[in-house]
Design a protein that fits this description.
Order of helices and strands: EEEEHHHEEEHHH
Distance between the termini: 23 Å
Radius of gyration: 19 Å
Largest sheet: 5 strands, antiparallel
Strand order of the largest sheet: 4-3-2-1-7
Helix content: 40-55%
Number of helices: 6
Shape: globular
Structural class: alpha+beta
Strand content: 15-25%
Number of strands: 7
């Protein structure tokens, strides 16, 4: 799936045995909450969101400690704490440049039970790029949802559509 989601959708990143939910400020390891300090969490989110590029220490300082004057060593401390939780191989040090998240990452959106959110998540999940029939099927599905009562159970609807 694409990494571009609407603001109303809830993003989820999965790598290895971990699942990161930035909006909820949660990192799960095998489905259980992992202990990670707030600054290390912010470093992880920054690295994953911009994983295609190397983030400099200055960029991380600006993102994680906005408006504060802190030493560059703070970045190293937080990356070290992060590596202890998620593994040393997930974050690469690029000498004299910064850090890059290098573990394979999958991203998608997590359906919310707030109707506008889960409808758009389902639409993204149903439409495969270049597939007209899937697009038309998802359009029909969304039309059906629009006509359905607001008290509709999204889990039931998804199961019905799979049948």
């Amino acid at each position: 799936m694409t990494d571009h989601f609407q603001a109303s959708e809830i993003r989820r990143y999965r790598f290895g045995r971990f699942e990161l939910r930035p909006a909820q400020r949660r990192l799960l390891a095998d489905g259980v909450a992992a202990t990670l300090g707030s600054r290390a969490f912010d470093v992880l989110v920054a690295l994953i969101e911009r994983r295609a590029e190397v983030l400099t220490k200055d960029e991380l300082l600006e993102r994680v400690w906005p408006g504060l004057v802190v030493e560059e060593a703070n970045v190293q401390v937080q990356v070290s704490a992060l590596r202890k939780v998620i593994g040393a191989d997930a974050v690469a040090t690029v000498q004299r440049r910064g850090y890059q998240f290098v573990a394979p990452v999958e991203s998608d959106c997590v359906p919310s039970f707030d109707r506008p959110n889960w409808v758009s998540c389902v639409a993204l999940a149903a439409v495969a790029p270049g597939s007209r029939s899937n697009f038309l099927d998802s359009f029909e599905f969304l039309r059906t949802l629009r006509e359905a009562p607001a008290t509709l159970n999204p889990r039931q609807t998804l199961k019905e559509q799979e049948a």
